[in-house]
């Protein structure tokens, strides 16, 4: 590590590198192309920042390109990298969709050494002849498994065609494995696999499943909003359900922010800022919008909708308990959902039933034999009858008496009317 970085780390009390940071330092510094895997929240951004930045030459043009799958992750990476680039007098430029392209073009004219962007905007600038990458030395794909899928993979192909240099170092980073043949075929090289996913890292993440009927999930969020010093990213599978829940929370005066595709970059940036500053209890988002987000000391992650696979659960869970901190993952659903989730992920998940709020929840065991009906009864509060069972026959008897008395009353009124009609017109006797 560069001595200037070491001095700064020492000044802030940082003493130990994470396993992934130690493992990739030498290969990256030596110019090797690598495929690096590590759990979420283990410092992968700094893992490639520290070894690569000292290799860059100030005022020598665009030398390092870092690609991320979302605007938020690109901006987050920009903040982290710029913090260390300033130590070496290096310039950093963010190239993301939704941002002011004219401003980005003006900054490009200054030829910053480090570019950090989303594939869509970077490929757009390349196609329009506004971005040249002939001086590039290193290409980083952050969350590589996401970048090498579907339409994004086509954009990566366009970017690589603009580089097409065997001497350019390529590094793939992520928590999920990339098909080696896909990466090798695209970049025409073999990658050194560095897999640190099985290396134990001290962590205190609790995984909880809150037995909750679908129509009660929004109320669960309202209950959690009352907890002091509590914040959470809330994950949804669809933007539609996200917006429905956002409307409910707004009506309940719960401070929250939303992060969804389709929102302007200004709106998304404001949502993240409010959440980071503690102005919002919840950040409502989808998997696509929140991939790789780093919110320091985030207490919890909530799965309003259960993830569709174990990989998605892992990425969601990685937003809390980062760098060994304490965190909680809360999932909503019924007992069938609970069984499905246990098959999906290899972590110890505690079932929670009843109670209001995080510290008051009552922990109960849930077994495979528990019926769906019984599970619903454990978490839906039902008013208990105050009258003992022995009173039930008495209720029926009273009801029967009421019925007879009404019939007698109607019969009496009918006889009175008949008598009235019979005597109508007849003289009255004094």
UniProtKB/TrEMBL annotation:
Segments of skewed composition (Basic and acidic residues): 359-380
Region (Disordered): 356-430
Helicase C-terminal domain sequence ranges: 220-366
Matching InterPro entries: DEAD/DEAH_box_helicase_dom (IPR011545), DEAD/DEAH_RhlB (IPR044742), DEAD_box_RNA_helicases (IPR050547), Helicase_ATP-bd (IPR014001), Helicase_C-like (IPR001650), P-loop_NTPase (IPR027417), RNA-helicase_DEAD-box_CS (IPR000629)
Basic residues bias: start-end ranges: 414-430
Pfam families the record matches: DEAD (PF00270), Helicase_C (PF00271)
The entry's keywords: ATP-binding, Helicase, Hydrolase, Nucleotide-binding
Domain of life (superkingdom): Bacteria
MF GO annotations: helicase activity
Domain annotation Helicase ATP-binding: ranges: 25-195
PANTHER family: ATP-DEPENDENT RNA HELICASE YFML-RELATED, DEAD-BOX ATP-DEPENDENT RNA HELICASE 47, MITOCHONDRIAL
Family per similarity comment: Belongs to the DEAD box helicase family.
Name recorded for this polypeptide: ATP-dependent helicase
Native source species: Weissella thailandensis
């Amino acid at each position: 590590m560069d001595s200037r970085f070491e001095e700064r780390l020492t000044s802030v009390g940082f003493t130990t590198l994470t396993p992934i940071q130690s493992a990739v330092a030498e290969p990256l510094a030596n110019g090797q192309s690598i495929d690096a895997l590590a759990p979420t929240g283990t410092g992968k951004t700094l893992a490639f920042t520290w070894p690569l930045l000292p290799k860059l030459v100030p005022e020598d043009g665009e030398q390092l390109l870092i690609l991320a799958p979302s605007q938020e992750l690109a901006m987050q990476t920009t903040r982290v990298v710029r913090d260390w680039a300033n130590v070496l007098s290096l310039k950093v430029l963010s190239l993301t969709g939704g941002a002011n392209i004219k401003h980005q073009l003006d900054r490009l004219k200054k030829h910053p050494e480090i570019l950090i962007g989303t594939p869509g905007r970077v490929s757009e600038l390349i196609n329009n002849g506004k971005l040249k990458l002939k001086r590039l030395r290193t290409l980083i794909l952050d969350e590589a498994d996401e970048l090498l899928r579907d339409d994004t993979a086509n954009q990566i192909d366009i970017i690589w065609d603009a580089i097409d240099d065997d001497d350019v170092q390529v590094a793939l980073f992520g928590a999920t494995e990339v098909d080696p043949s896909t990466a090798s075929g695209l970049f025409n090289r073999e990658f050194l696999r560095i897999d640190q996913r099985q290396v134990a890292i001290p962590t205190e993440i609790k995984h909880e499943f809150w037995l909750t009927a679908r129509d009660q999930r929004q109320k669960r969020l309202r209950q959690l909003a009352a907890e002091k010093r509590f914040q959470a990213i809330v994950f949804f599978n669809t933007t539609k359900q996200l917006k429905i829940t956002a409307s409910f929370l707004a009506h309940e005066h719960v401070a929250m922010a939303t992060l969804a595709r389709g929102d302007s970059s200004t709106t998304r940036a404001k949502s993240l800022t409010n959440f980071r500053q503690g102005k919002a209890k919840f950040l409502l988002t989808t998997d696509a919008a929140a991939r790789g987000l780093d919110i320091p000391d985030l207490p919890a992650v909530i799965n309003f909708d259960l993830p569709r696979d174990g990989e998605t659960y892992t990425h969601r869970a990685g937003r809390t308990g980062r760098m060994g901190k304490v965190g909680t993952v809360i999932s909503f659903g019924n007992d069938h959902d609970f069984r499905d989730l246990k098959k999906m992920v290899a972590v110890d998940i505690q079932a929670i039933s009843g109670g209001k709020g995080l510290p008051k929840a009552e922990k109960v065991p849930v077994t495979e034999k528990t019926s769906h009906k019984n599970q619903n009864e454990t978490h839906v509060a039902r008013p208990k009858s105050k009258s003992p069972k022995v009173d039930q026959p008495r209720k029926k008897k009273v009801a029967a008496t009421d019925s007879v008395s009404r019939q007698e009353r109607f019969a009496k009124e009918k006889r009175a009317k008949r008598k009235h009609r019979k005597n109508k017109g007849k003289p009255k006797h004094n």
